[in-house]
């Protein structure tokens, strides 16, 4: 068996990890229009990490409040008449129990038996995911190839797995995960999809075999590693901009870049970068996609959380000309996801239903790369655990994600 790059375990001392001891996740509810105004203020307040912003048809926001800012925030809530539930009382305790990892012995046994370390019982570090992609390319050379489409800020490879129909002229589907580092269920679900389309290839019907798949499970590998090793709630990439690190890769794409819902301030969570495609991760994806010359019929990006199936536009509340098609297929996806895993997903235009945010990958895929069926799917949950989704939800969520991509494959499999 091949040697993997070793898992670098205690490369950051325990005390160098960011602690969320005493941080609370609050679900805050508005009952009047005036209180909704207050929610808008709250979600942009300094020292508040907003996990789920106020959506158009919602009246709640999820905010993480650190002990240092708890007094200020609770005073604000009181004076605006907002009520709240404490959803997670001590975030550090939730983080500590979220991801039970295997012992080195168990890991070695697994690798000896299967040729890789990937499971859908826990959230894996980047080395396990990349090792799994290598294993698949070596095991199924007839239809699986692995390509490095670029390099992250810190020099990690951006690995795209191609699963080929072996039929020239086939329609193609692009899938990415892990644009946002802390949304661990996204790479977990995308690797599950890869597993089903390779190791379990005959179980999913003809459509999936008649499509060429291009799959990038971890678009933001630096952020993903950082979220495992240092700060569980890291969102952006790891580009250092003056006194703060990180560009929000989902605000850095070059279509209507820099508009509403993105920030020019490097310390903000939605920092759009210094210019469109200033980041190597987003730039590599755009070049690769642009080179697929019209074969791509689907662009699909997995995020969490909220259980939404979002289609363009995200920068403006208007909808594209073929909105009826996007909406119809979106509703088919929702039905399939519900049947596969039991969670309800809400379908709509990203800005019209959620909130406007410019510079996201989906708008670029639709507006610049002109890929018809472009979606962002926000996986589970709806804010009971948020980003810290316990491992027993990986499989049900991943099955829903698989159902989504199968629906899309059936939709385009006969389109030429
Ligand atoms: N939660 C995602 C984000 O904030 C939603 C993106 C939806 N798409 C959009 N173009 N706004 O990045
Ligand atoms: Zn996201």
From TrEMBL:
The active site is at 378 (proton donor/acceptor). Keywords: Carboxypeptidase, Disulfide bond, Hydrolase, Metal-binding, Metalloprotease, Protease, Secreted, Signal, Zinc. Pfam families: Peptidase_M14 (PF00246), Propep_M14 (PF02244). Residues 122-412 form the Peptidase M14 domain. One of its GO terms (cellular component) is extracellular space. Its main location: secreted. One of its GO terms (molecular function) is zinc ion binding. The keyword DNA damage does not apply. It comes from the Eukaryota. SMART domains: Zn_pept. GO terms for biological process: proteolysis. The keyword Zinc applies. Its cofactor is Zn(2+). Gene3D superfamilies: Metallocarboxypeptidase-like, Zn peptidases. Belongs to the peptidase M14 family. Involved in the digestion of the blood meal. This is Putative carboxypeptidase 9. The lineage of its organism: Eukaryota, Metazoa, Ecdysozoa, Arthropoda, Hexapoda. The gene is CPase9.
